[in-house]
Amino acid sequence: MMHLCSKTYHLKKIFVLCGALAVVGIFLLSLRTGLIDSLFNDSTHRIGKGGDFFQFYQAGYNLTQGSSIYLPGSEPLVIPYGAIYKYPPFAAYTVGLVSQLTSPWIAYSCWVLLILCCFVLLWFLISSAVFAVGKRLVPFFLFCCFTPLYIDLYMGQTNTIMALLLCLILISNSPSFVWALSVNVKMHTLLLLPVYIKQRKMKIILYSALFSFLLFIPYFLWHPSDLKYFVEYVFGTPLDYFYQAGNLGMYPLIQDLVQLVTYNTSTIAAVQFMWSIGIVAVSLWVMFTTQERDTRGLLSLWVCTFFVGYKFVWEHHLVMLLPVLAVEYMNRDRRAVAVIWFFLALPTVFWFVDMPIGERYAELQPYLSDTRSILYHSCKIIPLLLLYSSVICRLLNVRFPAKWLAVLLLAAVLFAEAVSAVSLSARDCIARALKCELNGDIPAAHLWYKKAYFINPNYIDGLIHYANFLQEQGLDEEFSKCVHRVYRLDPDNPVFGDLKKTKN
After folding, report:
1. Domain count of the chain?
2. Which segments cross the bilayer (predicted)?
3. Which residues pair with 247 in a beta bridge?
C-alpha cells in the first residue's frame, strides 16, 4: 500500500512538472508565433513585441550621442518602434549601452534569455529560502503558469529582474546595495522605506541612499532639464492616462464605479487620491501595531500596498508579486493563498471584452460598456485585495476570513455590474457609437452620439469623441458647437489642442 501511494505521488509529481514546463514552453513558442497574444491587451493593442525594451536601446544610443534619454531631439530613431524612455537612468547606461553592441532584435532576444535566467534563479532562491522539501510541487506549478511572465517577456520589461531583487531583499540581512539597485531599476521599492525606519536600520537606509545617489544623480547633473520631465511623469500624470485597458490597478475601477454616479473629473481624482492615502494609512497603522519581528512580513505588506494603492498596475507588474505569494503560501492557509495565486496567474477576461479595433496602439477602453469595463478592471484587483488582506491578517495575528472577504468583494462588483446593466449611461452610448463606427454604420453611430449627449451633455470624454466624429463627417457647424461646449466645460483639458484643428 505504501509503495502504491509513493508511486502515485511520483506520477502526480511528474505530471505536474511536465504540465508546468509545457506552459513555459507555450510562452516561448508564442513569442515566436503569437499563439496566445490574443489573451492579453499588451500583446494585442500596444506598440508591439519588445516595445518596452527598445526604450532602453534607444536611450543607450542617445547616450552615445550625448543626447537626452528622456526628451526626443534631432537624434535618429534606431529602433523598429518604442515609447519615450521613462525609467530611472540606470537602465539606459547599463542595458542600453551594452545593447549597442548588436542590433535591436538580437539585443531583445538576449534580453529575453536574461529574463528567463532570472526567472529560473528566482525559483531556486524562493524554493530554498521559503518552501520546505515536499511542499514545492503546487508553488512550482503556479510559478511556471504565471501568465504575467509572458507579458514581461513579450514587452522586454524588467519585472522578473525586480522580483529577483525583491527576493534577495527578503532573504538578506543587509540588503543596502540590492535595495538601491532595485530603486534604480524601478522606483516602486521606495515603498519599503517605512519598514527600515520602523526597525531603525539606519545603516541600510544611509548606504542605500548613497548607492542610489551614485547611480541616479550623475545623469541629471549632465542633463539637469531632464529631471523636471522625470518628476512630472512620476507625480503629475494626467487623469485620462490612468483610465485605459492596460491598467489593472484600483484607479480605473474607481473611475468605473464613480462614473455610475458622476463624470466630474475632479470628483474622480479626489476619490482616487483618498483611496491611495487610505491604503498607505492602513499599511502604516498595521506596521506600527503588529508585534511581528520578521522583516519579510513587513516587506510583503508594502509590496502589496503598491499593488492596491498605486495609480498604475500593468499586467506585467504582477511578476513582482511572486516572492510575496511564496512567503504568504508558507505562512497562511495554503489553500486560500493558492487560490489567490491561481487567479493572479490566469489571464484577464480581455479575450472576452476585446473587439477588432486595430492591432497596434489602439485603446480598447472607450469601446467598453460600463458592465464590461467593471468586469475587466475587477478581475485582478479582487485577488490583489485578498492578498493584501491576507498579509494584514497575518501581521495582526488574526484569522484570515478568505471566503467571506471574497464573497464581499464579489458581491460589491456584482452590485456595480447590476447598476450599470439596468441603466443606460452616456458612456455606454459612446461605446455603442464607436462600435457602430467600426462597423461602418455611420447613421447609427450618429444616433448613439446624440443619445449620449441627451443623457449627459457634460460628459467631456463623450463630447470629445462626438467632436471627432462630427469633424470626420464634415459636419462643421455641429463640430464647432461641440468644441465650444468642451471649452466651456474644461478649457484646460489635455486633448483640447487636438479639437482646435478645424477645417476652417
Report:
1. 3
2. 12-31, 105-125, 137-155, 161-183, 204-222, 267-286, 334-353, 374-392, 404-425
3. 314
Residue 271: phi and psi, rounded to 5, are: -65, -40
Q: Is residue 47 part of a domain?
A: no
Dihedral of alpha carbons 140, 404, 245, 364, sign? positive
The domain containing residue 122 runs over which residues? 53-235
- Mean pLDDT, the chain, rounded, equals 86
Query: 151 and 64 in one domain?
Result: yes
pLDDT band for position 502 (cuts 50, 70, 90): very low
Would you state the cell numbers that stand for residue 462, as one nine-digit string?
A: 463623450
Residue 36's pLDDT is: 94
* Residue where one domain finishes, among candidates 364, 390, 422: 422
At residue 240 the predicted structure's pLDDT band, cuts being 50, 70 and 90, is low
Cα distance between residue 268 and residue 256, in whole Å = 9
Residue 92 lies in a domain: yes
pTM of the model: 0.89
Instruction: Classify burial at 398, counting beta carbons within 10 Å of its beta carbon; exposed 0-12, middle 13-18, buried 19 or more.
Output: exposed
How far is C-alpha 399 from the chain's CA centre? 30
Q: How wide is the angle at C-alpha 132 spanned by C-alphas 130 and 134, nearest 5°?
A: 140
CB 154 within 8 A of CB 313: no
Q: Determine the pLDDT at residue 501.
A: 45
Bridge partners (DSSP) of residue 314 are: 247
Cell numbers representing residue 7 in the block:
508511486
Tell me how far apart the alpha carbons of residues 170 and 70 are, in angstroms, rounded to a whole number. Answer: 32
- CA nearest neighbour of 323 among 181, 24, 184, 122: 122
Query: In angstroms, rounded to a whole number, what is the distance separating the alpha carbons of residues 139 and 211?
Result: 34
As given in the structure block, the three cell numbers for residue 351 are: 479575450
Among candidate residues 380, 332, 372, 382, the one with its CA nearest the CA of residue 352: 372
Domain of 451: which CATH number?
A: 1.25.40.10
Residue 495 pLDDT grade (very low, low, confident, very high; cuts 50, 70, 90): low
What pLDDT, on a 0 to 100 scale, did the predictor assign at position 420? 67
Handedness of CA 206, 207, 211, 214 (dihedral sign): positive
Q: Above 60 in pLDDT, residue 250?
A: yes
| pLDDT tens digit sequence for 458-470 | 888 888 888 889 8
Assess whether pLDDT exceeds 50 at residue 499: no
DSSP states of 413-482 as a string? HHHHHHHHHHS--HHHHHHHHHHHHHTT-HHHHHHHHHHHHHH-TT-HHHHHHHHHHHHHTT-HHHHHHH
Backbone angles phi, psi at 77, to 5 degrees: -85, 120
Task: Give the pLDDT confidence score for residue 418 in this predicted structure.
Answer: 79
Fill in the amino acid letter for 417.
Answer: E
